[in-house]
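ok so I'm stuck.
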Amino acid sequence: MAIRLEDKKAIVAEVNEAASGALSVVLADYRGITSGEMTSLRKQAREQNVYLRVIRNTLAKRAVEGTEYECVRDVLVGPTIFAFSMEDPGAAARLLKDFAKEKEKFEIKALAVGGELLGADQIDRLAKLPTREQALTMLVATIQAPITKLARTFNEVPSKVTRAVAAVRDQKKEAA
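replied:
not stuck anymore, here's the structure
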């Protein structure tokens, strides 16, 4: 079905806006996926704040112009689905990696982060990034560790003094 020029411009503008605000992008070949499975994938993407879009390669090449994802132009061959992570850099990678485990025909083509194109074999690097909440938890634990150790050290001083006094008392009782 032919798309009117105005519609093409709107699609390009929409994808360009998403690409400009995205933290990472994952591209996949969706051949062999049913419409029901695609609907399920789209629902999961919305829940994880991942912008998911199937777009013609010619329009996609125009859409990524001027963004840090221009590097994906060479990978745009065959049917391609774009998954842009909007809040969490690893969200799209986790989503498509889990979906690819369930559907053997679904194949991840490439991914890009910070203007660097990575192969499909690098999906684990991106998927294993902690979420924002996990990263904040790790940061708080790292900041809290020295304070906790200092509190334990201060708490240990009176305990050592008490044990030393008790040992001296026990020695005097034995001597007497």
